[in-house]
Amino acid sequence: MSLKFGTSGLRGLSEDLKGKASALYATAFAHHLLNSGLAKQGDPILIGQDFRDSSPAIAASCIGALKAAGLKPLDCGALPTPALALYGLSLKAAALMITGSHIPADRNGIKFYRPDGEIDKQDETAIADLAASLKQDELTVEEGTGESRGSEANELFYERNIGLLHDDALKGLKIGVYQHSTVARDLFVDVLAHYGADVVPLGRSESFIPVDTEAVSPDTLEKLKAWAPEHGLDAIVSADGDGDRPLLADETGTPLRGDLIGLITANFLKAGVVVTPVTSNSGIEAAGDFKVVRTKVGSPFVIAGMADALSEGRDHVVGFEANGGFLTATPFTLHGKQIAPLPTRDCFLPILATLQLKASEGKTLSEVAAAYSLPVAAADRLQDFAQEKSSALMEHLRASRSNLEAFLKPVGAVQSTSDIDGLRVTLTNGNTIHFRPSGNAPEMRCYVEAANEDEANALLNQGLDLIRNFG
Q1: pLDDT over 90 (residue 103)
Q2: What percent of the chain has pLDDT over 90?
Q3: Which one is catalytic: 8, 22, 61, 101?
Q4: pLDDT > 80? residue 6
Q5: Lowest CB count within 10 Å: 47, 53, 281, 334, which one?
């Protein structure tokens, strides 16, 4: 079976997750909540979903299993993951989000939330152990329904987002919304219009499109670069399938890197501590008045880093991933309003913070990005790259320094390495190249940094070729 926990929740083939498997993991989660005292019999639990074809059936199986376990499911329908998480925090209720985020349409997953926020790695282990101990063959799969709470959840998230900026903060801007199949598509239009922007909806799709905001596909790039001049846009915004990773393109249709958007947002909030994975740009440390903590890739690791900062008594604690998904661990005050913490990935805050900076400075988004003078970073992935082959490659590179040096000889000499997550190598010319297998899909990712765009793109293509030709 393909199901496994990765960087953010349980993922696998949709056919493997439907039916008994989804009921099994929902039951295991319910038992974990009850056994640990995080919930008691009869407590509410929220269920949300994205627009994948398989999501309604998986959600129905989960609702039936949660009812059988003694909890009260509340059906929030299709909505952004951060909206579901915020609603759960407000009710002090656990939640499940049925989503595969950005991965291909034949896959899906479940994200789990405790009443106090996203689960951690210890919770993942407990849920997996409980699922293994339950006898799947003895489970009765009954599709269930729950009381509808989608309107309340979406309204709470909308109210949060229209309190982040001054009224009319985006007046005069013409902003496209690439709607595709993201659950954030209608809320984007409403929130941007509230701030006075002229909003142009684009590319709405009734079939699921897997948009990866960290490795934007050539097809998506082609759309963005055509729409920007055609409609005279100042920016184009979008998100992945479940609306927790931002996609923000400038006036030419060129996407801004997620870690740059995260950096801009950290400065917007006057952050004191920034927790971010090792894959985020190496120039972040020098680009703001805050302490930077580096972690492995995945929101559970960022959340753990933020928790450590809180335990040290730090304030203004935030986190973001290289994909731009932004988390807040402490309250923030913006123009006299206190904004509650939301310690799960969110795409709205970073998009709004970056657009506000563009509007307030009267610059184009490309000028805003260039002003940060970060090392030029690029990333891509090889899809349909067997996980067994990824494991063999990483084992080979870690086996000896000579293996690593021989493998990288076509791109440069090795100066130093970091093994926090995958293998990140700094070359003697100052460039970096980072190899990292996906945690939940047959994909191998490559990240690079260099002095200029041409050099970064060349290094990225060389790195992908090295991976492709291994063995």
Answers
A1: no
A2: 85
A3: 101
A4: no
A5: 53
Mean pLDDT rounded to a whole number for the chain: 94
Residue 5 confidence (pLDDT): 86
- As a whole number of angstroms, the distance between CA 32 and CA 41 comes to 12
Q: What percentage of the chain carries pLDDT values higher than 70?
A: 99
Q: Are strands 432-437 and 443-450 parallel, antiparallel or unpaired?
A: antiparallel
- Give the closest residue to 176 by CA, choosing from 219, 222, 232: 232
- Burial annotation 30-61 (CB, 10 A radius, 16+ → b, else e): bbbbbeeebbeeebbbbbbbbbbebbebbbbb
At residue 283, does pLDDT exceed 70? yes
**Following CA atoms 359, 360, 361, 363 in sequence, which dihedral angle do they give, to the nearest 10 degrees?**
0
Of 4 and 87, which is predicted with more confidence?
A: 87
pLDDT at 135: 72
The owner of tokens 């994948």 is: 52
Residues 412-468 pLDDT 10s: 999 999 889 999 999 999 999 999 998 767 899 999 999 998 999 999 999 999 999
Residue 239: phi and psi, rounded to 5, are -160, 175
- Backbone dihedral region for residue 150 (phi beyond 0: left; psi -120 to 50: alpha; all else: beta): alpha
In this prediction, residue 178 carries a pLDDT of 98
d(CA 18, CA 108): 9
HEC letters along the chain: CCCEECCCCEEEEHHHHCCHHHHHHHHHHHHHHHHCCCCCCCCEEEEEECCCCCHHHHHHHHHHHHHHCCCEEEEEEECCHHHHHHHHHHHCCEEEEECCCCCCCCEEEEEEEECCEECCHHHHHHHHHHHHHCCHHHCCCCCCCCEECHHHHHHHHHHHHCCCCCCCCCCCCEEEEEEECCCCHHHHHHHHHHCCCEEEEEEECCCCCCCCCCCCCHHHHHHHHHHHHHHCCCEEEEECCCCCCEEEECCCCCECCHHHHHHHHHHHCCCCEEEEECCCCCCHHHCCCCEEEEECCCHHHHHHHHHHHHHCCCCCEEEECCCCCEEECCCEEECCEEECCEEEEECHHHHHHHHHHHHHHCCCHHHHHHHCCCCEEEEEEEECCCHHHHHHHHHHHHHCHHHHHHHHCCCCCEEEEECCCCEEEEECCCCEEEEEECCCCCEEEEEEEECCHHHHHHHHHHHHHHHHCCC
- Cβ–Cβ contacts within 10 Å for residue 163, how many? 12
Mean pLDDT of 258-262: 96
> Is residue 14 flagged as an active site residue?
no
b/e for 170-198, b at 16 or more Cβ within 10 A? beebebbbbbbbbbbbbbbbebbebbbbb
